[in-house]
Amino acid sequence: MPSKNPRMMLTLPPELAHAFEEFREATGTAPASFVVRLLMESLPMIRSVTEASRAAAKDQQEALDILQSAMGAALHQGTSAQLEMLEAGTALRRARGTKPKKAKP
Predict the structure, then answer these.
(1) Residue ranges per structural domain of the chain
(2) In this predicted model, what pLDDT tens digit does every residue of 20-70 receive, in sequence order?
(3) C-alpha angle with apex 44: 41 to 46, nearest 5 degrees?
(4) Radius of gyration for the alpha carbons in the chain, expressed in angstroms and rounded
């Protein structure tokens, strides 16, 4: 059954097409599915930029406030994801009985 969701046609530069083909081979995930997932996760930022663009016509300070709030939320999400990855790495090392590599000065 065909999807009722709207479609969008994109033209990819060769390096991006190559990266997606390697991604498909490595993960077995269709690039379109991956891109949709990335865009869905970006939806709050897309909406914030849209809102800020509309606000900029009326009040540049309001637009700046909207973008600062959106960037703060994105930074928080990135930090949380990084912390989760560090904790997962620590748990894996403990399970294997290995120690983390020391950073080179």
Answers:
(1) 20-96
(2) 999 999 999 999 999 999 999 888 888 888 888 888 778 788 878 888 887
(3) 95
(4) 20
